[in-house]
């Protein structure tokens, strides 16, 4: 059966091409939506599509919705079932990206959060590599500062907040870099435009704490677990100075889209003074990729198979 995308929209599963919103939709006008990105990773040998930690994404979606006063009237289990149904109907046999989104759906003018009806949708799209994971990428420290918790809370994945990421990403790419690293208002390292950041220092991982205006990444947590359990490497969560980007041994970015991406250069300084991917980053990449593709039985509990899960239920 040929693959074709479906969506869950207005309480029905429909072909993606039929899922359209009106131009007065509140979320479209004011950025009043919260969302997630969940990868489905295709395992050719097993003929299986594995969703990576979808429950954790739905729990984060609930937390984001609470911040934005969006009434997300679906439990984690209900969202899980609908996501599997959309994925199964779409029949992709390649890497995909699934986007659950809770949004202010009323066609009403007026900037506010209260008294505006909400809805929930899911769509799927094929999705290959986002950044080059085979070699280190080139980053700059952005001239744009990360949105502050007292402006648009970064811990909530709010569509409107992504104008901050888009400003930083376009500046970086149009200036010849691959990705932007943003600082907090105080000038400390925060995160990439769509990724968390880790530094390797003296054999340990160091990453900015949740209070430095980051989205608390699910890949970030997975990498911290893999480093601790498989390599005996601890992660320190602490505020990082900008200049530590230039003095540390290795830097990598983590995210659903970015996976584990090595950073080779920041502001024209080779990271760790070396060429190529650093040894700890390389080990974590290998562990992470075998885990997300379903080739590491120890972390099988992080994965939800699309095809078997649906077949078992029938
Ligand atoms: N920070 C930002 C700003 C992001 O958009 C993302 C991607 N969701 C991340 C970090 C990484 O989060 P995760 O590992 O949960 O995808």
Descriptive account of the structure:
- This protein is α+β, with helices and mostly antiparallel strands and 314 residues long.
- Helices cover 28% and strands 27% of the residues.
- The protein has eight helices and 17 strands.
- The protein has helices at 26-30, 54-67, 76-90, 162-174, 218-231, 244-247, 279-292, 306-313, and strands at 6-9, 12-15, 33-35, 38-43, 48-52, 96-104, 118-126, 137-141, 179-183, 189-192, 196-201, 204-207, 235-237, 250-255, 259-266, 269-270, 303-305.
- α5 (218-231) links the parallel β12 (204-207) and β13.
- 4'-deoxy-4'-aminopyridoxal-5'-phosphate (PMP) binds at residues 37, 165, 191, 194-196, 215, 217-220, 254-256.
- The site of 4'-deoxy-4'-aminopyridoxal-5'-phosphate has 14 residues, from α5 and β14.
What descriptors fit this protein?
D-amino Acid Aminotransferase, Chain A, domain 1; alpha+beta; about 325 residues; 8 helices; binds 4'-deoxy-4'-aminopyridoxal-5'-phosphate; D-amino Acid Aminotransferase, Chain A, domain 2; 2 domains
């Amino acid at each position: 059966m040929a693959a074709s995308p479906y969506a869950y929209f207005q309480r029905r599963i429909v072909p993606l091409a039929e899922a359209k919103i009106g131009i007065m939709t509140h979320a479209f006008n004011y950025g009043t939506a919260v969302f997630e990105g969940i990868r489905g990773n295709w395992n050719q040998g097993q003929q299986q599509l594995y969703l990576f930690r979808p429950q954790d994404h739905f729990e984060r979606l609930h937390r984001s919705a609470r911040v934005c006063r969006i009434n997300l009237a679906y439990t984690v289990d209900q969202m899980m079932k609908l996501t599997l149904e959309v994925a199964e109907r779409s029949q992709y046999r390649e890497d995909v990206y699934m986007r659950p989104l809770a949004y202010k759906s009323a066609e009403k003018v007026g900037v506010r959060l209260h008294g505006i009806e909400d809805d929930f949708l899911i769509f799927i799209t094929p999705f290959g590599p986002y950044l080059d994971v085979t070699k280190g990428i080139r980053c700059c420290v952005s001239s744009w500062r990360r949105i502050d918790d007292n402006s648009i809370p970064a811990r909530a994945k709010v569509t409107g907040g992504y104008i901050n990421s888009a400003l930083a990403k376009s500046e970086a790419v149009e200036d010849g870099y691959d990705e932007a690293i943003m600082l907090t208002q105080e000038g400390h390292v925060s995160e990439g435009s769509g990724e968390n950041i880790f530094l390797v220092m003296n054999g340990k991982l160091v990453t900015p704490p949740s209070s430095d205006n980051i989205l608390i990444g699910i890949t970030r947590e997975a990498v911290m677990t893999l480093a601790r359990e498989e390599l005996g490497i601890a992660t320190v969560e602490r505020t990082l100075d900008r200049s530590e980007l230039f003095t540390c041994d290795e830097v990598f970015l983590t995210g659903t889209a970015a996976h584990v991406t090595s950073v080779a250069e920041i502001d024209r300084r080779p990271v760790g003074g070396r060429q190529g991917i650093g040894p700890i980053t390389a080990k974590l990449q290998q562990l992470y990729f075998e885990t997300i593709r379903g080739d590491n039985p120890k972390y099988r509990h992080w994965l939800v198979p699309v095809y078997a899960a649906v077949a078992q239920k029938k």
